[in-house]
Design a protein that fits this description.
The protein has about 160 residues and is mostly helical. It contains five helices and no strands.
């Protein structure tokens, strides 16, 4: 059975993946002229992202309680194929984190504009907010994959179990 560390990490990744699906559905709906379907899909993306944030913060609290730190270190087995990928991992992780922080208030603003019926402003804002949000969602899953498949997540789970 998976540890709490692994379950939380996999839940975060799953929620990121689900948000990506809703974002893509919302994009397809608006391109097809289906505003109602777009609103429902984007509402689901916002809700999924809010749940993601709660689970992500819970995972940070768990790591703090279990390990005295809030992050899992990228530490693949030295002989694995993942060992040579740390630079690529950081190249994906750093913009992911920065953009996730930066885009969040703009997502809230985009939702507010849509709810207010200020669709031209909403459209103008979402021209750049949408691709950034999509990038953050996709790279969240990629970052998790690095941690999961490099053995770094399992190592952290073992350390937390001690």
């Amino acid at each position: 059975m998976a540890s709490t560390t692994e379950l939380l990490s996999r839940s975060v990744a799953g929620l990121n993946a689900l948000a990506t699906v809703f974002l893509l559905i919302g994009f397809a709906k608006i391109k097809a002229g289906d505003r109602a379907g777009h609103g429902k899909a984007m509402g689901a993306a916002v809700l999924t992202s809010a749940i993601f944030l709660a689970v992500y913060l819970a995972s940070k609290v768990h790591l703090w309680v279990a390990l005295g730190r809030t992050n899992i270190t990228y530490a693949p087995e030295p002989t694995s194929a993942w060992a040579g990928l740390k630079s690529l991992y950081l190249l994906i992780l750093i913009p992911h984190v920065i953009l996730a922080i930066v885009v969040t208030p703009f997502i809230v603003r985009a939702v507010w504009l849509a709810k207010q019926g200020r669709l031209e402003e909403h459209k103008k804002l979402t021209r750049w907010v949408f691709p950034v949000w999509l990038y953050v969602s996709v790279t969240g899953v990629v970052v998790w994959a690095f941690m999961e498949f490099s053995g770094s997540l399992a190592l952290a789970a073992q350390q937390a179990a001690k």
